């Protein structure tokens, strides 16, 4: 869609453009995909989304196609194996956090029926629709991401600061942060 105006952040990177045009901001209700974004957003902390997006396939292979039940069973030997895996960001704290987060994720599923039910309650089950004119207006955090982050930390999640959580909210469509002039703004706004 080269003739259509879009948010500027994907620049000319083919993977970033595809992600922007097909996924970013689309309301997501599949627990496995939600876990995927938690792993990826946690890995992104301090790095660029481009770096993580280009390693997404490696993360899928390394983290059992984002199956939280399998990842929750990873042990120290798995941590050491993953520390040698060049397909992912080899940061021990982030790897251990992904494993611990899988365990916390399963506990939330047990308590709420699904992670989807848990996370969408922070926005009353409906995507928040922003009307930003320029990318400079996009916040890095919000009062909702602050509360969501705080709650996740109390439940044992790590690498879920408010900035990471806000990025997760953007990725999974809890908030529509496509700028108003972007062709995806209205398309995503029509989704539930």
Count of folded domains: 1
Described by the principal axes of the CA atoms, the overall outline is: globular
Structural class: mainly alpha
What is the residue-averaged pLDDT?
Answer: 96
The CATH top-level class label: Mainly Alpha
Give helix % range.
40-55%
Number of DSSP-assigned strands: 2
Please give the radius of gyration in angstroms. 16 Å
**Architecture, according to CATH?**
Orthogonal Bundle
Main sheet overview: 2 strands, parallel
Spans of 5+ residues with little confidence (pLDDT < 50)?
Answer: none
Helix/strand order: HHHHHHHHEHHEH
User: Within the largest sheet, what's the order of strands?
Assistant: 1-2
- Termini distance? 23 Å
How large is the share of residues in beta strands?
Answer: under 5%
Q: Say which CATH homologous superfamily is assigned.
A: Hypothetical protein, domain 2
Total count of helical runs of at least 4 residues: 11
According to CATH, what is the topology? Endonuclease III, domain 1
Describe the protein's architecture and organization.
The chain has a two-stranded parallel ribbon. The protein has helices at residues 14-22, 31-44, 49-54, 56-62, 68-71, 76-83, 92-112, 115-120, 143-154, 162-171, 183-189; strands at residues 128-129, 175-176. The protein starts with 13 loop residues before the first helix and ends with a helix. α9 (143-154) crosses α10. The protein is mainly alpha-helical. Helices cover 54% and strands 2% of the residues.
């Amino acid at each position: 869609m080269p003739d259509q105006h879009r948010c500027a952040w994907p620049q000319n990177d083919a993977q970033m453009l595809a992600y922007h045009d097909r996924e970013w901001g689309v309301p997501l209700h599949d627990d496995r995909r939600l876990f995927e974004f938690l792993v990826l957003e946690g890995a992104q902390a301090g790095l660029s989304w481009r770096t993580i997006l280009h390693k997404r396939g490696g993360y899928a292979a390394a983290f059992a196609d984002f199956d939280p039940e399998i990842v929750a069973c990873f042990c120290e030997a798995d941590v050491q194996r993953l520390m040698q895996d060049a397909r992912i960001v080899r940061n021990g704290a982030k790897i251990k956090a992904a494993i611990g987060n899988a365990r916390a994720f399963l506990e939330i599923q047990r308590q709420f029926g699904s992670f989807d039910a848990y996370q969408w309650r922070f926005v009353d089950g409906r995507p928040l629709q922003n009307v930003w004119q320029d990318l400079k207006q996009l916040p890095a955090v919000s009062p909702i991401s602050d509360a969501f982050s705080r709650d996740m930390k109390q439940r044992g999640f790590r690498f879920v600061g408010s900035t990471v959580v806000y990025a997760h909210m953007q990725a999974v469509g809890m908030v529509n942060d496509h700028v108003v002039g972007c062709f995806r703004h209205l398309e995503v706004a029509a989704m539930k």
